[in-house]
Amino acid sequence: MPAWAGPVTRYVAEGLLTTVTLAAVSVVVSVLLGTALGALLTLPSRPVRIVVRAHVEIWRGLPIIVTLFFIFFVLPVIGLGFGTFVAAAIGLCLWGSANVAEIVRGAVQSVPRGQADAAAALGFPWPGRMRHVIFPQAARRVLPPLVGLVVNLVQQTSLAAVIGLLDVLQASQRSIERLTLSSGETHAVPILGSVLAVFFVICLPLTILSRRLERRLH
């Protein structure tokens, strides 16, 4: 093993831990918040739907990198400053939850309306209809696109490097710069190749799972 490999590996491993933590937080919050927002989009109350729809369209429409810059550089001007990890997590969760909300809304509205009408006739309130009748049927339709979105969200964590978060990509870039200054050689191919391999190993099983779920539930 080359002399430079040990320190670089440890440094990149720290960035990988940050990336995995960021991905886990973003996925969990996005799924939970997005499921709630998607359910609210099916409420009979028009004002509630308008507010939630505005939230979904804003954060789905903005590129994630713009959202990250807004949270990290603009909000501190009005006294809302965040660290790089928190700012990245907020930006990814806003984008992720908005997309999950749209997936959930589509799945819920794809359930035949007669199911909800029958539950209402039996005396179920809206929360009861959603919990016991609609969501169990919609879950089968949600899973394939949801797993695909999780893959996309994991990949988007690499954008956190633009605001200075020491994730696996940022750690790799700094390692390349340090090696270039110290030895004149970048070693970019093995370092960035290892980063590519990490994302491939994480995302490929999820992609395969999404395709199998889609075929099985079709």
From TrEMBL:
Keyword set includes Transport: yes
Sequence intervals crossing the membrane = 20-43, 64-90, 188-209
Q: Which UniProt keywords apply?
A: Amino-acid transport, Cell membrane, Membrane, Transmembrane, Transmembrane helix, Transport
Q: Which InterPro entries match?
A: AA_ABC_transptr_permease_3TM (IPR010065), ArtM/GltK/GlnP/TcyL/YhdX-like (IPR043429), MetI-like (IPR000515), MetI-like_sf (IPR035906)
What's the superkingdom here? Answer: Bacteria
Its placement in the membrane is given as: Multi-pass membrane protein
Question: Is Transmembrane found in the keyword set?
Answer: yes
Q: Which PROSITE patterns match?
A: ABC_TM1
ABC transmembrane type-1 domain residues: 16-210
List, alphabetically, the Pfam families matched.
Answer: BPD_transp_1
Compartments, record wording: Cell membrane
Q: Which family does it belong to?
A: Belongs to the binding-protein-dependent transport system permease family. HisMQ subfamily.
The name this protein goes by in its record: Amino acid ABC transporter permease
